Amino acid sequence: MLQLPEHQRIVITGVGLTAPGAANLAEFRANLLAGVSGISTIDLRYMGVHPAGICRFAETRYRKKRENNRGTRAGCIGVYCANEALADAKIDFSTYDRAATGVYIGLTEHGTVETENEVYNIGQYGYDVDYWTHHHNPRTVLNNPAGEITMNLGITGPHYSIGAACAAGNAALIQGMQMLRLGEVELALCGGISECVGSFGIFASFRAQGALAEHQDPTKASRPFDRDRNGIVISEGGCVFALERLDRALVRGAAIYGELTGYAMNSDARDFVLPYGPRQRQCMEAALARAGLRPEEITIVNTHATGTRQGDIEECNALRETFAGCANTWVNNTKSSIGHAMGAAGVLELAGNLPAFADRQVHPTINLDHLDPECDLPGLVANTPKQLDRVDAILNNSFGMVGINSVVIVERFVAN
To answer: How far is CA 218 from CA 38, 49, 94, 397, in A?
Structure first.
């Protein structure tokens, strides 16, 4: 770890999330360690029943039903996660200024669900646009989910959404870290949200690409690295982190999950859809360099692998090159348990691994019945957890369409 002054060290002090099968971090971690899948099914308009990750959480815990109805599903998820993160961090704004709090939310897309629903609705009335809701514009602007959080919490600092495909959650985390280090904000609420299960168009597009997972048992549909994998399980979800500068966190006696020390983003600049392993390797190397770490100092690598044939292989090739000879580096995959939560994927998967600093366990990749030889990675943890003596650093990969790559590194917090 690079030695930085306390006001430049950024720590995670709160986590709020909802994932398929879990409404908080404790439930999420328990499911991951037990190998319990959160995948069920959804009956899609025009497409029928498909495996999907659906979230169930207390939607009216932090705002009323009528407010949820006026807002969006993404906003509802965001409000829940942000409030949960603040409660977890024990922040009530007595020590922080709402005007100096930033909200940064990563999204794969936004507005698709609302537009599809409105087109369908006016179709029931002969496509008479007089039946189109006047709420459509504020619902579909890209900053909507972040803005809904600020309205709910009375936060008057900056808010915006970050569109970075499936790398967006990590990108928002990086943004929050940078803004804190620059002194632009005192507290950052950052993470990612996915409402993708509400869009038949997203399912239809992945099916047209031959990348939509199918399986008789939905809990076995998401199977990265497995020889019989056949695509992505689309999921909704959200995760918001409370980030603080270390000096402020120590003054108020905050519990610290871990310290953000490394990050990087780059672009493949090659293809709209196909990933490129060499550029992913460069992104991991850049994140390691920024953290001042050698590959062998990483304890857990959480992979992006989505269950597509070529995507999994490209990442595995990059991992073999980056972590060659790292006998104490262990590799897992969270999407096997919750599917692909798109803009929320990176932060949800990081959150699922954070408790490893305390319980010293690497949660397994499930549904790995017949390992694809091209995905045979040293240190791959399959089907049962791996107990370790110590966890020092977690590297989290998150890659997206149009060739965007992101890597975040979190280290076990150690006071100077």
So the answer is: 9, 10, 46, 25
- pLDDT category at 3 given cuts 50, 70, 90 is confident
333 and 381, same domain (yes or no): yes
Which of 228, 251, 274 is a domain's end point?
251
Sign of CA dihedral 112, 115, 121, 122: negative
H or E element, residue 279: helix 277-291
Catalytic residue, from 316, 340, 363, 375: name it: 340
| Percentage of residues of the chain with pLDDT beyond 90 | 98
- 20-70 pLDDT, tens digit per residue, is 999 999 999 999 999 999 999 999 999 999 999 999 999 999 999 999 999
Q: How many domains, the chain?
A: 2
Among 166, 239, 283, 375, the active-site one is 166
User: Is residue 166 flagged as an active site residue?
Assistant: yes
315-354 pLDDT, tens digit each = 999 999 999 999 999 999 999 999 999 999 999 999 999 9
Rounded Cα gap, residues 286 and 115, in angstroms? 39
Domain span at 24: 10-251
- Residue 4 included in any domain: no
Domain end call among 221, 251, 281: 251
State whether 274 and 218 are in the same domain: no
**Which CATH number fits the domain that encloses residue 171?**
3.40.47.10
User: CA neighbours within 13 Å on the CB side: how many for 318?
Assistant: 25
Q: Please give the backbone phi and psi of residue 107, each rounded to the nearest 5 degrees, phi first.
A: -135, 140
Summarize pLDDT for 380-392 with one digit per residue, the tens: 999 999 999 999 9
Among residues 110, 159, 304, 363, the one annotated as catalytic is: 304
Residue 2 is assigned to a structural domain of this protein: no
pTM of this prediction exceeds 0.90: yes
Establish whether 283 is a catalytic residue: no
Residue 1 has pLDDT above 80, yes or no: no
Q: Is 340 a catalytic residue?
A: yes
